[in-house]
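$ ./design --mode recover --in tokens.txt
reading tokens...
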């Protein structure tokens, strides 16, 4: 159920009422999952509400998302063992600011396209939609925790570094695939706050691609049981890069999400929390760099393939245009030959004329043929210009149009040796583009085989117009 907006030219849809409620539900569920990845008081490795909020603020707008993010963060603060209720709004402020800055910088100021259609939008999203807002969020959060005595100032830097990397991995791993693959589905159901200007293609991988990616996923799953992730984490990044080179951006971000699930989120949930050791900082750093490198590589590969396809289509259009141009030149050459033949016939008649009156009459007829030739050239130029424009459909009298064409052929040698019958079969008027129709008929009538002086004087030629 949806209601279309009255202001469709802005690219916005009026969303249904339940889009005001869903953010509270999914953010609360994200908070419950985040609690299970906590490694110390007030901090967790995978805080999902910020990633969910970044997704929602782009697809459903800031008014539905930012208040819900702040309310959820405030009411969920007690889950992090903050007993003083007066501090709950303070602890909720950094993540709310992160969501606002992500939307303000990337979507509002830079006019970024959140469905990430090219490398430019991906880089803008990584920098202004994730990295800088997360940096500010974690800096404020750690400052608050140090100020209120939750963390010692000597431990602030390790906490700050670990939280930035884990927050980035969680946001990067979740937001990219959701915004890329879910946006086309929501667009077709008019469930987007700001609709893309064109219809986004639905992802539809080929069977071969599904099999290949499935094999890689099976290998990744087997690796989690065979080798310790802490020592061989780079192998997962290499496999993600392989998928990026083979299948582009979509394959890369899906692989990154799968690696995030099987190596980080699922083991952390199974163990009831993240590891207390700060040695995971180096793993987070290396993994996040490989994830970003794979996503950027995949986006570049996809852009190159899109450009290659566009070039192929443009080349096909150019070849078609060249064929049409050849056909046009061929047709025009015959259209011009008919009046010229008429003029040549009059010149031959003029040579045989013996009186001044006959010569004057012949010259006047030559002038008439030249004027009609000029008119034909002008119509050809108009046709060449109007070919790139829409058809101009108008009522056309068939007999009048045929008479104009036959008049241009009247002075061809031997023209009077034939008899032309025009029959419209009851159709006196048609609706069409007059210039184009005249060129077609003129091209057809110019090929009438006119008998010579020794041929019979009457060789009737009939023109029929069928409805």
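writing sequence...
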């Amino acid at each position: 159920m949806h209601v279309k907006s009255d202001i469709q030219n802005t690219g916005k849809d009026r969303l249904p009422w339940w889009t005001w409620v869903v953010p509270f539900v999914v953010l609360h569920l994200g908070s419950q999952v985040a609690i299970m990845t906590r490694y110390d008081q007030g901090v967790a490795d995978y805080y999902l509400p910020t990633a969910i909020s970044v997704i929602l603020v782009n697809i459903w707008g800031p008014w539905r998302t930012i208040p819900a993010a702040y309310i959820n963060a405030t009411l969920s603060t007690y889950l992090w063992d903050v007993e003083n209720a007066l501090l709950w709004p303070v602890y909720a402020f950094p993540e709310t600011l992160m969501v606002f800055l992500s939307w303000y910088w990337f979507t509002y100021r830079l006019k970024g396209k959140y469905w990430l259609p090219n490398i430019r939008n991906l880089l803008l999203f990584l920098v202004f939609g994730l990295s800088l807002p997360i940096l500010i969020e974690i800096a404020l959060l750690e400052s608050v925790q140090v100020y209120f005595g939750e963390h010692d100032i000597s431990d602030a830097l390790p906490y700050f570094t670990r939280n930035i990397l884990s927050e980035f991995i969680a946001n990067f791993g979740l937001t990219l695939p959701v915004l890329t693959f879910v946006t086309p589905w929501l667009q077709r159901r008019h469930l987007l706050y700001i609709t893309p200007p064109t219809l986004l293609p639905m992802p539809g991988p080929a069977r071969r691609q599904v099999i290949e990616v499935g094999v890689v996923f099976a290998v990744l799953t087997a690796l989690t049981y065979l080798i310790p992730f802490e020592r061989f984490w780079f192998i997962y990044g290499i496999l993600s890069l392989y998928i990026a080179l083979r299948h582009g951006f979509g394959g890369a971000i899906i692989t990154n999400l799968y690696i995030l699930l099987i190596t980080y989120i699922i083991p952390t949930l199974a163990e009831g929390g993240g590891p207390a050791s700060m040695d995971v900082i180096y793993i987070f750093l290396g993994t996040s760099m490989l994830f970003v490198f794979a996503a950027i590589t995949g986006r570049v590969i996809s852009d190159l393939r899109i450009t290659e396809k566009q070039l192929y289509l443009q080349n096909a259009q150019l070849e078609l245009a060249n064929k049409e141009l050849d056909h046009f030149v061929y047709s025009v050459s015959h259209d011009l030959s008919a009046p010229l033949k008429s003029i040549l016939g009059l010149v031959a008649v003029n040579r045989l004329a013996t009186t001044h009156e006959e010569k004057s009459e012949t010259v006047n007829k030559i002038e008439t043929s030249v004027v009609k030739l000029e008119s034909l050239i002008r119509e050809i130029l108009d046709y060449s210009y109007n070919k790139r424009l829409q058809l101009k459909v108008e009522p056309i009298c068939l007999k009048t149009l045929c008479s104009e064409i036959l008049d241009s052929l009247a002075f061809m040698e031997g023209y009077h040796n034939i008899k032309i019958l025009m029959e419209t079969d009851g159709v006196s008027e048609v609706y069409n583009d007059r210039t184009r129709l005249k060129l077609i008929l003129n091209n057809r009538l110019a090929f009438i085989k006119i008998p010579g002086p020794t041929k019979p004087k009457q060789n009737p030629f009939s023109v029929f117009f069928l409805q």
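exit 0
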